[in-house]
């Protein structure tokens, strides 16, 4: 399953997403969700502990000014990468 999250770590959607995120899922952070992948933060530690691959929409990370401060292991993707993830994971769950 591909989870897409566009809410900041302090929002309920972040906690709800983490509760369902499994190691064989993937998480794509977009909009305010990119702040969850900031290195050395409690949110990033929670994401790392979930064991699922974390992807960050590059345009949103650039707009937020956080591209160079992302957690280790987070992968930047462009719109084509988003489409590829959507094709790889048949089911998607959006967290807004």
TrEMBL record:
Q: Which UniProt keywords apply?
A: Transferase
Name any one GO molecular function.
transferase activity
The source's superkingdom equals Bacteria
GO CC field = sulfurtransferase complex
Signal peptide interval: none
Q: Which GO terms describe its biological process?
A: tRNA wobble position uridine thiolation
Q: What is this protein called?
A: Sulfurtransferase complex subunit TusB
Species the sequence originates in: Kineobactrum salinum
Q: Which gene encodes it?
A: dsrH
């Amino acid at each position: 399953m591909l989870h897409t999250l566009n809410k900041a770590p302090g929002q309920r959607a972040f906690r709800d997403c983490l509760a369902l995120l499994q190691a064989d899922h993937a998480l794509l952070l977009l909009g305010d969700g990119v702040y969850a992948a900031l290195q050395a933060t409690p949110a990033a530690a929670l994401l790392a502990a979930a064991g699922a691959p974390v992807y960050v929409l590059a345009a949103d990370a650039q707009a937020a000014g956080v591209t160079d401060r992302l957690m280790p292991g987070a992968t930047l993707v462009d719109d084509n990468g988003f489409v590829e993830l959507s094709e790889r994971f048949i089911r998607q769950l959006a967290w807004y």
